[in-house]
Amino acid sequence: MLLIHCPYCEETLPEAEFAHAGQAHIIRPENPSAQTDEEWESFLFIRSNVKGPHYERWRHLHGCGRFFNAVRDTVSDRFLTTYKAGAPRPDLETLTGEVK
Amino acid sequence: MNAPISSFDPFALVETSAAQVRVASPCGRLSLRARGDLAPLNAALGLTLPEKIGQRVSAGNLEAICLGPDEWKLETETGAVAGIEEACAKVYAELPHALVDISAREATFVIEGVRAAELLTLGCPRDIATIEVGTGRRTVFDGATVLIWRDGESSFRMDVWNSFAPHLFALLDTGCRELAAEAA
C-alpha cells in the first residue's frame, strides 16, 4: 500500500484514506461562454498521460476531506512531493534531483 | 429538531477477554465549519477551538475536535444542542459559519479492553499508535468513514454513520471473538 503525506494533516497515511482526483493545475476558464468548442473540449476532456512525474490532485477523503496536489512518478508510483491546493507548482528539477 | 434515531439495536454488546464493544447512549453532535478569526465562536462556545487536526478541547459537557483546517465536530449532551445553536447564531453576523445538528446521523461504539487497539487494526489501515491518547482522528474502518476518539491507551470511541453501524459492529464482534479465541 502507498503511503501518502497529507499537507493539511501533516501526517503520512495509508493510501486507503485517500482518493485520486485527476490531473492538477487545470484552470477553469473565467468566461466559459467565450470559449470555442475546441477550447472547451480541451478543458473538459483532454488530459496528459504522463510517463514519469505527474502533477495530480488527491483528496484526503477519509480524513480532513481536503483536496491537495501531488507529484507522483507514474512508473514507480513514488510520490515526489505533496503540497496544498493553490500552492505554486513545484519545480520538477529540484524534485527529481532529490530522488537521485 | 434532529433527535437521535437509530436503525441499529441500541443494546448490541460483545464482551470477550480481549475487548468489549458496546453502543454509547445518544448524545448531541454538531458539525461546525468556519474560517478566519475564530474568536467570536470561541466566546460563544466557551472554549478555544483546537487548530491542529485531531486535537480535542473540552469545557464542561462540551467537547470539540478539529477534523480539518476549517472543520470541527462538537459533542455534548442531547439537551444542550439548542443552547449551543442559539449562542452561535448570535455571532453569525460577526463570523459567518455553518453549524449543523447531526445528532441523528451517527451511533457511537465504545471499544475497551486489553486488546482494543489491536481490534481496531482489523479494519483500519492506519497505525493506531499514531493516534495519541486524548486526541482523535477521522479515518477509514472497513471501507466506511469513522471518527476514532482515543480516550485511553486501550479505550476508544468510534462514531459511525447509522447505515454502516450493523456492518461495522459485525466486524468488531467477529474480531473480539477471534482475538479471545487466539489467546485461549
Task: Provide an overview of this structure.
The complex is a heterodimer of chains A (100) and B (184). By secondary structure, chain A is α+β, with helices and mostly antiparallel strands. Chain A has a single domain (3-29, 42-99), classed as Folate-binding fold (2-Layer Sandwich). Chain A contains 2 helices and 6 strands. The longest helix of chain A has 8 residues, at 37-44. Chain B is of the alpha+beta class. Chain B has one domain (13-183): 2-Layer Sandwich (Gyrase A, domain 2), CATH 3.30.1360.120. Helix content of chain B is 22%, strand content 34%. Chain B has 4 helices and 11 strands, in the order βββαβββαββαβββα. Chain B has a 6-stranded antiparallel β-sheet with strand order 1-2-8-11-10-9. In chain B, strands 4-5-6-3-7 form a 5-stranded antiparallel β-sheet, covered by helices on one side. The radius of gyration of chain B is 17 Å and the shape is elongated. The mean pLDDT of chain B is 92. Chains A and B meet through strand 2 of A and strand 9 of B.
In short:
By secondary structure, chain A is α+β, with helices and mostly antiparallel strands. In chain A, 16% of the residues lie in helices and 33% in strands. Chain B contains 4 helices and 11 strands.
